[in-house]
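name: query_chain
kind: protein
chains: 1
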Amino acid sequence: MTSVPPAAIGEAYTDTTAWELLAELSDLGDRMAGHEGEAIAAELIADALETAGVSEVTETSFPVPGWWREGASLTIDHGGRTNVFDGSHELVELPGSPSGTVTGEIVDMGYGLPEDFEDVDLSGTIAMASSVTPDDYGRWVHRSEKYGYAAESGAEAFLFYNHLEGALPPTGGIGDTDGPGPIPAVGLSKELGARLSRHCDAIDDGGIDATLDVETRTEPATSRNVEGVIGPDTDEEVLYTAHLDAHDVGTGANDNGFGSALVVSVARILASIEDELETKVRFLVVGAEEVGLYGSYYWTHTHDLDRVKAVVNMDGAGYSRDLEVHTHGFDAIGEAFSEVSDEYGIPVAIEEGLRPHSDHWPFVQRGVPGAQGRSSSGGNDRGWGHTHGDTLDKLDPRDLRELAVLSAGGVAKLAEADRPVEGRSVEDVASEVVEERFDVGMKATGTWPFGDERSWPWADEL
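structure:
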């Protein structure tokens, strides 16, 4: 069994390289897909991987539908007064929103669950929904799903309000795979959302008059993936991945500068035992995750997936040092990390359910063994993620060090030549998607990836 030696672990706990990279990425500010900051981030990560001892480091460009925010305001008329909300602490455009000015009645759709929109005619209105999904609902309802239901029900604009106090307005992609979505959309702070909801509840017909004005710019853009390898030249390879892009509010320190820094830290650890690795390890940091998983989809369409033994994708790992590994039914990945947990005496939570919303998903949906590594947030939320508050001061370098050591241990074990990691049939994965009811949202948002209805970037290239 391949283990990370104590000397390498000790080096990981004293090395500051990855944390310094995380600070550099955070200081870029805007790493939105296709923007200049994302390109600079790719160069910084490529340089860091080379310094870490990774070979064959490359940057590969690919096209994405570029999107830039240029301003938004919400004007409401209530109680004989007019109020204008246009501060960045109150609202922010959702990436993929088209430009537009819409005047109509605000209708609060609560959680924005599929059943909330059944037989509801929202023609000419501005629909509003919370960012939270009830704990007992059984699955997470993504913002793009709520947005899609609003548009299908006839709403002419969409308001997505945070459920966390003081956490500022949430952003997040709602565009189609080839460009903007159908109706203007913004994220609202919890406080503004609560105010509007209170006004809606106080009126017999359930709404208040408002005007939403959104200005955005869209044009073709270029994103990029960064990758490199260590270990022997084997037919199989283990991938350790994260995404380098971030939303252009906040600094993307947690989501996902932390994951990018983890890739570099794990690369440094495993480079110190490169001669002991039995399978090639590829470090892959992809672009344009936040707007549709473009980088990971592009990679899966331009590489031989039969060579991928397993994928461990780090996204959402900055909340704590309590590692969770979501295996998507690939038990061998969970077993590898359970062994690491036993060896180091550090708990690692192994979760089996699907998480179809990050860069492991383009692999998993095609039966390739893939897991998402993240850390426990202690609640049903992403904290400061996707807001102006996603900044470096929320993070702890001790979490980065501990998660890097656990990740390196798990990847090293997955790279053992005599450790099989079995894939799953596409039909099996599709059945589980239906069983966990994620098919409802995927079909509603045009991202159902199975059969003749499949829809994702570059699908026609298969």
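note: The first helix runs from residue 6 to 14.
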